[in-house]
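thread: overnight batch results

M.L. [08:02]
morning all. the overnight job finished for the chain we discussed friday. pasting input first so we're all looking at the same thing
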Amino acid sequence: MKYKLKIAVLMGGPSAEREISLITGKAVVQNLNRKKYTITPVEMTRGGRFFVSASKKFLDLQNKDRKLFDIIFIALHGTPGEDGTVQGMFDALNIKYTGPGTLASALAMDKEKSAEIYRVHNLLTPDFIAFGTKEWDSERAAIVRHVKKYLGFPAVIKPTNQGSAVGTAIVKNEKKLISEVTRIIKQFPRLMIQTFIKGQEATCGILEKNGKAFALPPTRIISNANEFYDYQSKYAPGGSTHVCPADFSSTVNKKIQSLALKAHLSLGCRGMSRTDIFVTDDGKLWVIETNTIPGMTPTSLLPEAASKAGISFTKMLNMIIAASFKNN
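M.L. [08:03]
and the structure it wrote out:
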């Protein structure tokens, strides 16, 4: 009998994206090829413990249970599953896992650091200022002056280490800037304020085959629920419309693919990623951020784009797993 790889699908966790992670994890479990894999859904509690979803048995991955699986499919969104924390633990324990490694995950999750890397690699990205709670308390007037002088309004406020547009707000004047930062920073202690880019939202996924990364068809995103592609637009039924392949010109679509691939490689990603890009009327393409564990819910962009490229959900998962084995 042919050996079946033992895969744990890790989901849940303590982040603000926990519920989406559970949906992603369940979708991965449902679409993995049962002829190739023995699949065990594993949930991370809000307290950071791991347990097998079916039996409710807690796992000790640091000791006796570390060799129960050949590889762990990480379906954790946000901290600590997407920021390099879990990846670093698995590296230390010599446990194989899917997706980008520790450093790439940490860099991509930190929007401040990833923006700096984009600039080093000549990727156009919005100007920004980043600060923490102490700086906001002691240097508030200086931060506001910087925004007014160098970034302007509207401006975009976002936590430096969250995904799914959690904690993101667009502000159109100084009064709203102060009130929104004051509100958001209570939950997320480090924020960035970016220049608002007025344009059409696009995104492009990256997969790997035989050790080589390649871009999927880009998607144009139309937010139906709100002003921008926020949490509700991403996950509510009918919250957004996805045009894939994107209905930009073929030249723009190729540029989007090229930029997504360059962002993937500049951050040192492996296996998969998805980069968000804004296309403005003057022909500029702005790289916004790179997601190292894209959602795989029924409304998610990566599996949708893969299907447009003739890659089924199941085949896409096979490719992610194969790439992870090659690069671990």
